[in-house]
Amino acid sequence: MSTPKNPRLTPEQFEALGRDLDALRQRLLDDLGEQDRKYIYDVVKVQRALEVTGRGLLMASSFPPAWVAGTVALSLSKVLDNMEIGHNVMHGQYDWMRDPALNSKMFEWDTVAPAENWKHSHNFVHHTYTNIVGKDRDIGYGVLRMDEGQRWQPYYLGNPVYATMLMLFFQWGVMLHDLEVDNLRTGRKKWSETAGVRRRMWHKGLKQVLKDYVLFPALSGPQFLSTLTANATANLVRNIWAFSIIFCGHFPTGVQSFTQEETEDETRGEWYFRQMLGSANITGSPLFHIMTGNLSHQIEHHLFPDIPARRYPQIAAEVRAICEKYGLPYNTGGLGKQLGSVAAKIVKLALPDRFWAKPSTPERGGKDGRALRVA
C-alpha cells in the first residue's frame, strides 16, 4: 500500500486509530511477565560485569592494551546504564516488578543529570507535548534551532557549533535542561523558582565528578592519570552515542511538528497520531537495538513509553501495519541516513529562512485537516 503524500484523518479514523493502539497496548500489558523480568536482570548483570571488568583492567592501565580494553568495557557499561537501564527504568517500564532497585521513583543513573529533574523535563514535558512548538522543550533543548517554527535570529548561525558542543557534553546539557535557561533569559521564569532544581543539580553533579575524576582514579593508585582519562573517554563515548540516537529519533527529515492551536482538546487517537508522526526509527541488528535502549524504535517508544522497551522490536511490524492502514508515514532508516539528515537540518536551520525556504511549505494533514509542518 502506498502512503499518501498528505495523509488526513477524519474524526472517525482518529477514533479507530486510538482503539487499535489501545488494544495493542493492552495486549502488551497483559503479556508482561517472567521473560521481561529475566531480560532486565540479565542486562543489569552484563552492565555490572562490564563495569567491574573495566575497572579491573584499568588497575593495570600502564599496559596500553589493558587501558584500551578497560576503556571499551567501561564505555559499554555506561551506554547500557544510560540507555537500556536508566532511561527505561525511569519511565516506569519495570515498576510492575515491585523491585526497589528497578523502580522509577527510586532509581538513579550514572550521569550528572538528577533523575528527578530528568523525569520532569523528559517523562512529563517531552512525552506529553511531543513536537508541539513552544511546549516541547526538547525541540532544540533551548540551545538549537531544530524546527522551522522556531523564529530565526542571528544567534542560530552558531547552530552547528552548539550541536557539536551539546554532543560532546551531552550529560551536562541534559542536566542543565530542566533549569530552563532560555526561559530565565526571557523572563518567563524566575531564578528563585529554580532553587530545588539547582540544589539537585549541584548534589548530583558534584557526586559524579568526584566519583569519575577523583575516587576511582585515586583507587587505581599509580594509574591515577590513565584511569582519569579512561573515565573521561567513557563519558565522551556515552555522550556522543546518546546524542546521536536521541537526535536520530526526533529530528531527521520527515519528522513533523505541531502548533499549540491544532493540538488543543486532543483525543487519544490524535495524541497517538502526533507521537507517530513526530518520531523516527533507526534500523539495525538486535545488538544495536539493545545498545540504543531500543530507542532505535522511537515511534514505538513514543506510543508506549512505559512498556518495557524490549517489546518494541516485537511490535514494530504491527505498528507499521497500522500506519499503512491509515495512510500514515513510518519514518525509518539506517543510522547513517538518519544522522546525515539531522546534520543537514542543523546546518540548514542555522541560516535565515530566505536561503532555503520554498514559496510554499510542505504540509501534512492535521486535526480537522489543519496543516502540520514537515521538519
Record keyword descriptors for this entry.
375 residues, three-stranded antiparallel β-sheet, 14 helices, globular
Notes on the structure:
This protein is mainly alpha-helical. It has one domain. It contains 14 helices and five strands. The strands form two sheets. Strands 1-5-4 form a three-stranded antiparallel β-sheet, with no helix packed on it. It has a two-stranded parallel ribbon with strand order 2-3. A hairpin with a 5-residue loop joins β4 and β5 (371-374).
Helicity, as a percent range: 55-70%
| Main sheet overview | 3 strands, antiparallel
Low-confidence stretches: 1-6, 361-366
Approximately what portion of the residues adopt beta-strand conformation? under 5%
Oligomer: single chain
Order of helices and strands: HHHHHHHHHEHEHHHEHEE
- On the 0 to 100 scale, the average pLDDT is 92
Domains, number: 1
Strand order of the largest sheet: 1-5-4
Compute the separation of the termini in Å. 24 Å
**Number of helix segments?**
14
The secondary-structure class comes to: mainly alpha
Shape: globular
CA-atom Rg in angstroms: 21 Å
Total beta strands: 5
InterPro entries: FA_desaturase_dom, Fatty_acid_desaturase
Protein name: Acyl-CoA desaturase
Domain Fatty acid desaturase: 66-332
GO molecular function: oxidoreductase activity, acting on paired donors, with oxidation of a pair of donors resulting in the reduction of molecular oxygen to two molecules of water
